[in-house]
Amino acid sequence: MISAQEALKTVLNSAQDFGVEEIPFLKSVGSILKEEIFADRDFPPFNRVSMDGIVIDYTSFKNGQRAFKIEGIQAAGSEQIKLVDTKNCIEVMTGAVLPNNANSVIRYEDVTIDNGIAIITIDTINKGQNIHAKGKDVKSGALLIQKNTIISAAEIGVLATVGKSVVKVARQPKVMIVSTGDELVGVAEMPLAHQIRRSNVFTLVSLLERLNIPSETAHITDDKPILKAKIAAYLKAYDVLLFSGAVSKGKYDFLPEVFEELGVEKRFHKVAQRPGKPFWFGYAAALSMMHQGGSENRDKKTIVFGFPGNPISTFVNCLAYFYPWYYKSVGLEVKEETAILAKDVSFKPNLAYFLQVKLASKKGQLMAHPIKGNGSGDLASLVKTDAFIQLPNDKIEFKKGEVYPILKYR
Q1: Superfamily (CATH) of domain 2-19+172-330
Q2: How far is CA 162 from the centre of its chain?
Q3: What's the whole-number mean pLDDT along residues 291-304?
Q4: Nearest Cα to 325, choosing from 236, 218, 211?
Q5: What is the dihedral angle through the alpha carbons of 231, 233, 234, 239, rounded to the nearest 10 degrees?
Q6: Rounded to an integer, what is the distance from CA 63 to the centroid of its chain?
Q7: Residue 293 — very low, low, confident or very high, per pLDDT cuts 50/70/90?
Q8: Which CATH superfamily is domain 48-132 in?
Q9: Model-level pTM?
């Protein structure tokens, strides 16, 4: 049995680069950008009118003129026109290019217009007002989006502005999530008195969807030959296998021996933590795998996470180990989150303790309120909490006000 710190280090050392793919920019939300995005022109690309109104030469106003004959209209999207007589004005629309020979925009609210004459009704204006100067936001060639950024709606707008209709993003691993056990039935089925519905696989599916990772699911009964045959096929077809159950010491917990017989190298089995102690981790030798798009990859190992079957154990191990493994694999740097323990906690076993907590903000500080559940099988307790706070194994008493890492799931 290894410590939680050693287990995480081992998992991170098995991180893999799954390559890069090009996708349409509108389908890239949630993906991790794998190129730098630069401005292809100044932002804005011209002196831009920022208010509906009229535009004049400021010198005329400075010299006392208040009434201006309207020469024309500069609409948004139309080619730039010129103020021919600097004693006149041009009506302008928001987003339009600033007409030549004009330098101050007065909004309609500060003007009256009658018979083609605009009269300014305020006493003071400034030269250059209501004009968004060319290049004020960003100069051509400037870096707009860093590589390894998670693409959101904000990035989509920038990608569209610079004409990036196709973008390079991290290829997602191909993942199979497997549940085992004769006691499990489908969600829509009515379980017998000795059965329960499958839930862990769907929890894992949802946890992976938070990372924008698609996954497939399968259920295998407690039959060793069938387990072995199906897992052998999965090892060839997928980058990552996530198992829930059958890794402990039960008579029908066949997975560890099946992994060994299939040549999956065990890196550890059992972690000094609660919940989630019977965690199995390893990887298969490099196999031929076919990614989406048809590109064959012979250099990758199939990573195997064997999580314990209790729902809280599966949940916390996915957050504590799979998430960091994925972040490192795709080059994403994620800052550790912490919270302040809101009350004293005692925990005597020499184990890392992932304690469920309800989070609340108090005077700008994130407080973690411990919530008691009924063990690692108490799936319903997850809906009452927001995170796990990770308490180290080097002491027994944890005091109110102490700060520890958290794994948030809301």
Answers
A1: MoaB/Mog-like domain (3.40.980.10)
A2: 23
A3: 64
A4: 211
A5: 130
A6: 57
A7: very low
A8: Molybdopterin biosynthesis moea protein, domain 3. (2.170.190.11)
A9: 0.85
Q: How far apart are the first and last CA of the chain?
A: 31
37, 241, 281, 367, 409 from 181: Cα distances, Å: 48, 17, 19, 39, 27
Is residue 338 pLDDT above 80, yes or no? yes
| Closest to 83 in 3D by CA, of 68, 72, 92, 67 | 72
Judge whether 4 and 320 are in contact, CB under 8 Å. Answer: yes
Q: Which pLDDT value is given to residue 300?
A: 76
Reported in sequence order, the residue ranges of 338-396 that DSSP labels E, i.e. its strands, are: 338-341, 345-346, 352-362, 365-370, 387-391
Cβ atoms of 98 and 51 within 8 Å: the answer is no
Residue 187 three-state SS: coil
Cα distance between residue 57 and residue 71, in whole Å: 13
Where is mean pLDDT largest: 80-94, 238-252, 305-319? 80-94
What's the whole-number average pLDDT of the chain?
A: 91
pLDDT at 223: 83
Domain 26-43+137-169: which CATH number of 3.30.365.10, 1.10.357.10, 3.90.105.10, 3.30.70.100 = 3.90.105.10
Q: Are 183 and 195 in contact (CB under 8 A)?
A: yes
Residue 279, Cβ density class (10 Å: 0-12 exposed, 13-18 middle, ≥19 buried):
buried
Q: pLDDT class for 285, splitting at 50, 70, 90?
A: confident
User: What pLDDT was estimated at residue 252?
Assistant: 45
The residue behind tokens 């994925």 is: 326
Render the burial of 111-130: b for 16+ CB within 10 Å, e for the rest. Answer: beeeeeebebeeeebeeeeb
Q: Where are the domains of the chain?
A: 2-19+172-330, 26-43+137-169, 48-132, 338-408
More confident residue, 200 or 114: 114
